[in-house]
Amino acid sequence: MFTLEIDGTPVAIIRSNEERARELLEVEGFQDDLRTMKSDGRPLWSGKAASLKLRPATEDEVETFEDSMDEEDFEDEDEPKAANDSKGSGDDEDEEDDVDILFLVDIDDEDEA
């Protein structure tokens, strides 16, 4: 897992391999999201590439991520499960490409002005 820092502030944890995490930082749509998403009324990112830093996540950050995923799994238990037949579907390869993101800062609700 890797932590995205913006201007020295840990903003998000990315669960993926390092190559995929670095690629994510180059995706224009993700960059647009970082510029438009706000925390405390301010954009997460100014758009200056030098202010983005990717580093290995700390143990505390990994624990925060795992706790969040455990809570999400608990919430999903109330929803009906779809049948899943993964035989021969190449899911193992897809898992290597999976990227999960947990924001460490509170993201402002878009409906609030």
From TrEMBL:
Q: Where is this region: Disordered?
A: 55-100
User: Which residue ranges have biased composition labelled Basic and acidic residues?
Assistant: 80-90
According to its UniProt entry, this protein's organism is: Methylobacterium nonmethylotrophicum
Where in the sequence does UniProt note compositional bias of the Acidic residues kind? 59-79, 91-100
Name this protein carries in UniProt: Glutamine amidotransferase
| Highest taxon above the source species | Bacteria
